[in-house]
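User: I'm putting together a small comparison set for a docking exercise, and I want a reference complex before I start. The sequence is below, and the ligand is LLP. Could you produce the 3D structure with the ligand included, as structure tokens?
Assistant: Of course. I'll restate your input first, then give the structure tokens for the complex.
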Amino acid sequence: MGIMEIGKVPVTRLAEKCGTPLLIYDEEKIENKIKSYMRNFSSPLFQTEVVYASKAFGCPAMIEKVKDAGASLDVVSGGELYIAKVSGMNMEKVYFHGNNKTSEEINTALEFGCGNIVADNPEEFRTIIETAACTKRKINLMLRINPKVAAHTHEYTVTAAEDSKFGVSIDHKEKIAVLIKTAADKKVTFKGFHSHIGSQIFEASAFIKAAGLMIGLCSYMEKEHDIPCPWLSLGGGFGIKYTAEDDPPETETLCRELIRGGEEAIRSAGVKTEKIMIEPGRSIAGDAGCTVYKVGYEKIAGDKRYLFVDGGMGDNIRPALYGAEYSCDLAEHMGDTKDKEYVIGGKYCESGDIIIRKAMLPEAKKGDLLIVYSTGAYAYSMSSCYNGTGRPAVVFVKDGRARLVMRREKKEDLMYLAKDQEVKI
Ligand code: LLP
């Protein structure tokens, strides 16, 4: 019977000190993952840039890691822009995404000195140009394209189907050229195109296919319309291992294949691509984080043996929303035979609040610590205080030391927005 350790600290000690549910990040895993992307995603043919998608998990401590590694940052709202700014991110290395940026958000981006905006649709593209024209700021502008490459993933995370909500269809080449020409002679420099085909994708071939199509589009713009497209972003979406069935490629392999695919497409199209970017989110934060819950009651219903824990859909909506699967262990029984089948149920008042539908574990009892792996991406960032249950605390652990980076949401916090004030009509 072994006790699980993260960053050389026993999980039992972390739970004792910080309470449960607790999101624990192994700092070294985050650092190694970013470094691996920075090292492997490089080419002698063009510059490269790794842009961390902060929507996967964005807080000052995480942004610190991105900064330290020399990577860039993807944000999708005024809120994420603000977090980046107050976390001391170099705003020139920030890319502002999203499909419906308000004028207020665009102004904030300009005011904060955000270097790059990625427009999602023609109307937004024009609004960004008009807004920038009224300020002294210069901005690099990119346009999101839907390359229509089908990738195998959950329906909610597919972004490049024919009728997807994101980006301008790659079929509309002429309209795209006309649109880009409206950016000429303004404070805006059109830099190129962006695509993001979905999330939790394992096949490098889908990204390579998208890269080829996007480079084809750049070639068309350069040759037919004399529109330079020096930058190309291939987005994020690289999958991670949640369960034994998942088989994602290693970062090195993925980067090598993406780079090779990019180089080949650039050579054969003869385009003048200066820089290619990628935007990994999940694959940097995902398996660096895990959630520790305390086991409460057990209940047998029909042929199911429920094990209830002190968290659930409030701290991780992914199983309820996407049918996402996870693996788990009892943190104080590592290595014990896992011969009991449980349904891990959350504590929220919803039948759908099941964290793991089929979990094989050693015999569990009240008070045990259950560790759910790979919850580092899109769990905390999508968390809520549903049922009046505050968000969990987050700790970063490394070399036997732990630091609390997000404190637990207290019940008093649940009232801080409450107000009763007349609205003057
Ligand atoms: N770039 C853009 C433009 C994106 O929309 C996204 C994710 C990323 C990069 C990062 O993708 P990643 O490398 O993390 O897959 N909530 C869902 C995932 C939604 C992804 C949204 N966009 C989930 O929990 O599976």
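The pocket of LLP is lined by residues 53, 55-56, 74, 97, 157, 196, 199-200, 235-238, 279-283, 318, 322, 377-378 (CB under 6 Å). The mean pLDDT is 96.
User: Thanks, that's exactly what I needed.
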